[in-house]
Amino acid sequence: ESCGTRVDATRSIKLRTLPPVLNFQLKRCVFLQKTTTKKKITSAFSFPEELDMAQRLSEPSESPLTYGLSAVLVHKGTAVNSGHYVAHIKDEASGQWWEFDDEHVSNLGHHPFGEGSSCSVSKTDGEADVSKSCAEIKNSVAGENHVNVDLHQSSSVNGHVETYSSSDAYMLMYTLRHRKSDKNGWPLCSANHDKVNVVAAPVNSGASLPSHLAEEIKALNMSYVDACEKYKLRKEREMNTITERRQEVRSVLSEAPVLSLEEPYFWVSIDWLRQWADNVTPPAIDNT
């Protein structure tokens, strides 16, 4: 095994099995040797809506291993060490994308970067890409059957794969898609394709959820609304207290006379005044 000399070697990583969720961390920065700093790569790059990982394993899988894009993490800003992070997450039930920007949540439609954003459709047989807007693709007609291409239902129609482009995405999340389903559209999750016994409960989005999940979501939503109301009331009380104390401090400072040195006076420490101004009960002043 040892030849006692320097030789060229090849290092590789083999994939034997794959998890239900794939996370791709993109290297979107370069190291500048002249300045010894990192710089963000701002050029746009494309990534597919659907990944076929069956042929990526060391031993190709006979069963389909198709992953669909389910989330995109975005870094806003030009610097590597600063900026703002948002998450674009797909609702698998409705096919719609949502942007989570701190406490702000926005609906993006059926495109991970908002309706009207550019995307392209490529043929899997190696033919040239055809660039269209998402609205054009959605309203186009596929094949001779005149089936409308619906972006949120499938990204592969008659051998076409949809791709997206972004200059700020830095992490991509793909979720394994279940190809086998029963007559009601529910996935067959186990290895022997046994169906999961659930009772569907209608929700506002038009999709169906198991009854126990619908009840749990309803309870969590009620708890969240209650917590928000309590926070709102607590915030109002604290703001009123702060406003009253500020007015009291201003009135004391405006009414406090400047006495001459001949008249008696008292010492008040700065710490005592700070505690009083911050609505902290200060200790009694001892002027003996």
TrEMBL record:
Native organism taxonomy: Eukaryota, Viridiplantae, Streptophyta, Embryophyta, Tracheophyta
UniProt-listed PROSITE patterns: USP_2 (PS00973), USP_3 (PS50235)
Domain USP positions: 1-177
Catalytic activity: Thiol-dependent hydrolysis of ester, thioester, amide, peptide and isopeptide bonds formed by the C-terminal Gly of ubiquitin (a 76-residue protein attached to proteins as an intracellular targeting signal)
Single GO cellular component term: nucleus
Entry's localization field: Nucleus
Tagged with keyword Protease: yes
EC nos: 3.4.19.12
Entry similarity comment: Belongs to the peptidase C19 family.
GO biological process: protein deubiquitination; proteolysis
Domain of life: Eukaryota
Keywords: Hydrolase, Nucleus, Protease, Thiol protease, Ubl conjugation pathway
GO MF: cysteine-type deubiquitinase activity
Species: Opuntia streptacantha (Prickly pear cactus)
Record protein name field: ubiquitinyl hydrolase 1
InterPro entries, A to Z: DUSP-like_sf, Papain-like_cys_pep_sf, Peptidase_C19, Peptidase_C19_UCH, USP, USP_CS
